[in-house]
Amino acid sequence: MTPNLAVDKEDDPVRIIAEGDTTVDHVTVNTSVVLEEDSNVGTESGAGFGDITLTDDLPAGSDVTLNGSFVELDVLSKDIHIDIPSGSVGTITAEQDATGVTLDLSESVEIATLVINAAIVVTGEGTIETAIISEEAEAETMFETAPGATATPAPS
What we know:
Distance between the termini: 35 Å
Oligomer: single chain
Largest sheet: 13 strands, parallel
Strand content: over 45%
Structural class: mainly beta
Number of strands: 13
């Protein structure tokens, strides 16, 4: 059985901490949340949180905070704030309908690939190795700190 987690709580945000050999392959987020990995968990052991999906059910104005090493973050939500104060993410994808998203990356944060299909605002001094920006999102996407490299997606 694949360990999955759905976060769906009205009102107050939820804080979930992965400790020890806790492994969650996929997290589906429908409400504000803080996902945090204990310093002893993460990519070396294969433990911690794997893929995260911020669904289109996540209300506008929601806050999502990620602390740790994550494989993939898929953003389907509109008008939300994503804060990554520490850690890394392999790939972040802002899907076509994910407009109005603010992504805040602290200085120590590393993102391998950021795929932008809807205009977003990226703040903070974190490192983005490569940003792949669609033509539709290119004009309105803003970066406080420029990515290491940028590209446009290959035509389909």
